[in-house]
Amino acid sequence: MQRLILTVQEESGIERRAWPVTRGVPLPQGAVAECADLWLEDARGRAVTLQSRPLSHWPDGSIKWVLVDFQADVVGSAVYHLCYAGEAPRAVPANRLQISESDERIVVCTGPLRFAVSRQRYGLVHAVSLGRQEADGFVEEVSVSPQGGDSWADICEAFEIGETQRRIYGMGGMCRASLGESAYRVQVEESGPLRAVIRCEGALESEAPMHHYVGYQPFRFVTRIYAFAGHAFLRVLHTVVVACDPGQTELRELAVRIPVDWAGKRRYRLGGNRCMEGVLGQDEGLLLAQCQDRHFRLERRRSGHSERVAEGERAGGWAVLEGEEAGVGVALRYMAEEYPKAIGVDRGGIDVFLWKDPDGGRLHFKRYAEEVAWHEGEGVYSDGLGTAKTSEFFIDYFQHNTSEEAPQRLTALLDWPHVAVDPGWMAHCEVAGGFAVRAVDAFPHSERMLDGFLEWMARSIEVNRWRGFFDWGDVLVAWEESTGDWRFRGRWGWCNSEWDPRHGVWIQYLRSGAGRWFRLGEAMTRHSMDVDTCHYHPLRPYRVGGCFRHSIDHFGDEPCASHTFIDNWIDYYHLTGDHRTLEVLGEAGEFFLRYRWSEDSRFSFSLRSIANTLRGLLYLWELTGKARFKQRAEEIFQVIARGQNDDGSWHKRFQVSTPDRLPDQAPYGMATEGTTLAVEMGTATPFTPAEHKALGGASAEGKHVLSYADQKGYQTHYLMIGLELLHRLTGRTDVAKCYLRAVDWFCGGPDVFDSEMAWKQRYGGVLCRHLSYAYKLTGERGYLEVGRQLLRRLAESQDWSDDPKRRGAVGLSPMYLSLLFFGVPHLLGALQDAGMDE
Q1: Does one domain contain both 645 and 698?
Q2: Phi/psi at 749 (nearest 5 deg)?
């Protein structure tokens, strides 16, 4: 029998009983054929009810990753064991979720809670009752709300720009989910004895009351409602996608309503910097608003007037409204990090404001400028059409006899316990291609380097206060020595999808099991797959599924394959089974499948573009098992192999149809594959001398044709990750040969192992990965010796000054963090296998 350790860590000092937890767990190839072969035991060896589903499979059909749901008793920490390869005992659940479906609605019963989700019209949940589950059905004790709620956006489409000038693009006003019946769809996305997920998809439609303004739907949405056996709380993930003209529409507020229907008085409690409570008057409302990341205020509103009654730095993020028999509480996650957010309370219910500035500010989706600054390295124009944002909140329903515990339950919901899989097991299963478990004793210098660099990025987020509705989860990407600060102009601003620092965070989490890195990785990954990705674009549908390039906007440079990195999405999906992530991975898969090429020598391949396409298609094949992803990836590999130079390198702009593997060199200097293609097609003029000079400085050479040597270099690293993945999935010898020729080029040639050449080609440290995989393919320790030299010099280059802006950095950019973590942990694993130190 095989037993895997799962440690549930409670970091808030809250005692939890039968608390729902979820984690993805890797399994070795051939170990488990189906979920029925798995069972769960507590620390005393007693069987625990388990809900599981496969997330991905090995080529032989066995389960590669499995999602496990169970309910844990936790005081401080608790250990559970996931077991297989034995006779599986079965635990009888104390409570079991029950779901019934009809054409009109879906009804969910958790035991103490029953609610319905309408199939006809959006209302979040309705017919909410509290009670108990008996053998012959649910016994209602209290009706909380027979009516459903709603979701809305209040938009502005009319702007005054002077005494006699104005712009009016539409009616603006309220747009409601309940009005968008034509777009509304509901399904049970996941169900089991312990957890269920209901997915509601639709559009926010304008409620303009007269004339012909019907049918305007400026935002799309997906609401996911999570229900848990034995509990009366719900988890809600609400995703909104921008579907309007970004230059014509601004947002005043974005909200979801949770109604109540009780007679008698209404008592409220609010989590500011302390618990504030009272009884609501007949026309009274309260607004708890996190205005900035370090400032909240509480306002009382009566008859159109408001007064400030409290303020502080960080709100607790929850509110409770209760009548004489029952109550409802709401907890809004990341209220300070994703400001401005608010919670409103009145006699009719609770409003969860996912975006609201109480001072009247508006959220816009337009690009910072209409002009594209090629002289600042920008590419092709883009704006916020198709960007998205997911917000998370919890709803807790309770009867009067558990009223006093409501604030503690809401606090517990905001700080969920963390489940860690044994890092040794992660390494054993070669998750993410393999790595060494974090071990300071074994690799003291390398671990100090990795720890220090990650601490530097986490500290940079805090020191620079990189927070806000769209900003939380992203980082600035380029340090400017001349100003001693982060650059924020042209192409250099938000990281967006510049390599993948998120994957670096996940690698450190996988090898350490530390909950803080899980939380940071989750925030960054959610930002990446929502804000930094295009999800809707009827004008340019080819953009959907691609990631926006780095820019001073999160969406100011077009989505392109060269900047679409989905490694972190794969990490997060495997660890959580998150349905939103799988949805976005599907969009990316279609984006990569649209990739095309021509062997006309007037046009060039972008090496990093086709490299990321290969890698993305392989991830989708590995995840879904769908042959179309594999077939297209293999076709792309054949082109890539033809483009490899005789010395093992590739040109960053190449063409397979010419003897020297170079395209006809049109004037060069374009920043992206889109700008390059526009020049090659003759639909845009090349860089002007003025643009060259502005981009490169007064001493810039203004090259319009790159030399043969200048064509080679860093973009090959993009490709190597995909080639490694293709070999791991297929074992093809031609892929291994292609890969090894490239690694040898990085090292000065076959059997040369030139560490100086390798240092010049290190690209932030990612070369360490290629060296270690080359060792795995050949057993040649020369690759590891070169890797050790790189490790030494990388560690020596780390900044250990007292300057908090620099301390710990191995290159002042989160991009370099991603490259270091792609490479070094993998190399440490190979050194460990070879019995070598650092």
Answers
A1: yes
A2: 130, 170
pLDDT score recorded for residue 9: 95
Mapping DSSP onto H, E and C, the string for 199-225 reads: EEEEEEEECCCCCCCCCCCCEEEEEEE
Give the span between the Cα atoms of 44 and 656, in whole angstroms.
63
Per DSSP, what are the bridge partners of residue 223? 200, 238
What's the Rg (C-alpha) of the chain?
Answer: 28
**What is the edge-to-edge ordering of all strands in the sheet holding 77-84?**
47-48, 39-42, 77-84, 2-9, 418-421
Is residue 109 domain-shared with residue 61, that is, in the same domain? no
Please give the structure tokens belonging to residue 767: 């070369």
Task: Report yes or no: 738 and 719 within 8 Å, Cβ to Cβ.
Answer: no
Q: Is residue 456 part of a domain?
A: no
Pull the structure tokens for residue 693: 């000079």
Last residue of a domain, one of 18, 49, 84: 84
Quote the pTM value. Answer: 0.97
Please tell me the distance from the alpha carbon of residue 671 to that of residue 377, in angstroms, as a whole number.
6
What would the two tokens of residue 684 be?
A: 């845009």
459 in any annotated domain:
no
DSSP structure string for 774-818: HHHHH--HHHHHHHHHHHHHHHHHS--SS-TTTTT-SSSSHHHHH
Query: What is the CA angle 572-407-335, rounded to 5?
Result: 45
Provide the 8-state DSSP code for 709.
Answer: G
Q: DSSP string covering 325-340, please?
A: SEEEEEEETTTTTT-S
Residue 63 belongs to domain spanning: 2-84
| pLDDT > 80? residue 288 | yes
Average pLDDT over residues 654-674: 82
> CATH number of the domain that 759 lies in?
1.50.10.10
Tell me how far apart the alpha carbons of residues 829 and 432 are, in angstroms, rounded to a whole number: 12
Scan for tokens 């769960």, then name that residue: 40
Q: Are the beta carbons of 767 and 746 closer than 8 angstroms?
A: yes
**Is residue 78 located within the same domain as residue 221?**
no
> In the prediction, which pLDDT does 467 show?
98
Token pair for 474? 């992203």
d(CA 544, CA 672): 18
* DSSP sequence for 142-167: EEEESS--EEEEEEE-EEE-SSS-EE
Examine the fold and report which residue of 84, 107, 124 is the final residue of a domain before the chain moves on. Answer: 84
Please give the pLDDT value at position 669: 55
The two three-digit tokens of residue 804, written as one number? 């908090």
- Residue of 597, 616, 617 lying closest to 606 (CA atoms): 597
**Range with the poorest average pLDDT among 28-42, 219-233, 510-524, 708-722:** 708-722
The answer to whether the CB of 330 falls within 8 A of the CB of 395 is yes
Same domain? 132 vs 61: no
Eight-class DSSP state of 547? B
Domain count, the chain: 3
**Residue 184: how many CB atoms within 10 A of its CB?**
20
pLDDT of 161: 86
C-alpha distances in Å from residue 360, one per residue of 155, 196, 363, 469:
12, 38, 10, 15
Q: Are strands 185-190 and 195-206 parallel, antiparallel or unpaired?
A: antiparallel
C-beta atoms surrounding 47 within 10 Å:
15
Tokens of 354: 């996912």
> What average pLDDT does range 26-48 have in this prediction?
96
Distance CA 751, CA 490 (A): 43
| Nearest Cα residue to 269 out of 111, 398, 130, 451 | 398
